[in-house]
Design goal:
CATH class of the largest domain: Alpha Beta
Largest sheet: 5 strands, mixed
Strand content: 5-15%
Order of helices and strands: HEEHEEHEHHHHHHHHHHEEH
Helix content: 40-55%
Radius of gyration: 27 Å
Number of helices: 14
Shape: elongated
Distance between the termini: 75 Å
CATH superfamily of the largest domain: Conserved hypothetical protein from pyrococcus furiosus pfu- 392566-001, ParB domain
Oligomer: single chain
CATH topology of the largest domain: Conserved hypothetical protein from pyrococcus furiosus pfu- 392566-001, ParB domain
Number of domains: 3
Length: 294
């Protein structure tokens, strides 16, 4: 276990979640600077090869760069010592990139010890703790911790400070069609919408409902109700459709459904008389159907 002074220097963030180790030093000169905050040449720092985040918002990066230009780097980045006089980022890549963006030559950095597995784990956990991660980024980070660090869901929940049910809910999002995952990453739908869609096992049906959510601007609650109705149709309606609905009705339902943008319900009695039911999911949806009828 690392010395107490080094652990205190790291602060309460990742040090509370990750284990320290003294076996990661790559040269005999590492002990002289490990546990210290020093000014490092940006050219001597390599980016973290285990960084799970691949996209950095350019506008936000520019804002950070302007802030650093005015006030400097308030919170040092964290690096590990590697061979020679080189270092590798552990955390703080946005500060590192922003500093380079404005032409800075150096950056304040805290030097610590970490092996490759710890590098991956720290990068993943740091990302998970961010407030601005989208649900799919969190889900992918959780899955990587399970796959590459060999954690169980229970161990993972303890490591990241979340309830196991929360971890499970995030991991289940990865069962969604990739198109829907992208929609969630881009902010078109929320995690609540995604959790409702998970209950639809057929990916093509997931896409159909996803498109309806976007088209009709359905709320999470409306989406949950829609999924519930699809999974548990009324027994009488189902029986009528399977055993009594004439072919001419079955052939026409798809056309009418496509026209209204909804799955249309049709019921037919023994005498051949029936009715067509057109569902709507919001006031806006109702007005849209009204205009179609007009």
């Amino acid at each position: 276990m690392a010395k107490a002074t080094k652990k205190q220097a790291l602060g309460r963030g990742l040090s509370a979640l990750l284990k320290e180790t003294d076996n990661a030093a790559t040269d005999k000169n590492a002990d002289a600077i490990v546990g210290s905050i020093i000014e490092l040449e940006l050219s001597a720092i390599e980016v973290n090869p285990f960084q799970p985040r691949t996209y950095f918002d350019e506008e936000a990066l520019t804002e950070l760069a302007n802030s650093i230009k005015e006030l400097g780097v308030i919170q040092p980045i964290t690096v590990r010592k590697i061979a020679g006089n080189n270092f590798q980022l552990v955390s703080g890549e946005r500060r590192f990139r922003a500093s380079k963006l404005i032409g800075n030559k150096t950056v304040p950095a805290y030097v610590r010890l970490a092996n490759d597995q710890e590098m991956l784990e720290m990068a993943l956990v740091e990302n998970i703790q961010r407030k601005n991660l989208d649900p799919i980024e969190v889900s992918l980070s959780y899955q990587r911790l399970i796959d590459e660090i060999k954690l169980t869901q229970e161990e993972l929940s303890i490591r990241v400070g979340k309830k196991r049910s929360t971890v499970t809910n995030y991991l289940r999002l990865l069962k969604l069609d990739p198109i829907i995952q992208t929609g969630m990453r881009d902010g078109f739908i929320s995690m609540g919408h995604g959790r409702a869609l998970i209950n639809i096992s057929d990916l093509s049906e997931q896409i159909q409902i996803y498109q309806q959510i976007l088209k009709d601007k359905l709320s999470v609650r409306q989406t949950e109700e829609l999924v519930k109705n699809l999974k548990n149709p009324k027994p009488s309606s189902n029986k009528t459709k399977n055993s009594k609905t004439p072919n001419f009705v079955n052939d026409g339902v798809a056309v009418i459904s496509e026209f209204f943008g909804h799955k249309i319900n049709v019921s037919v009695n023994e005498k051949g008389k029936g009715k067509i039911s057109i569902p709507f999911h919001s006031e806006e949806d109702f007005n849209r159907i009204k205009k179609l009828l007009e």
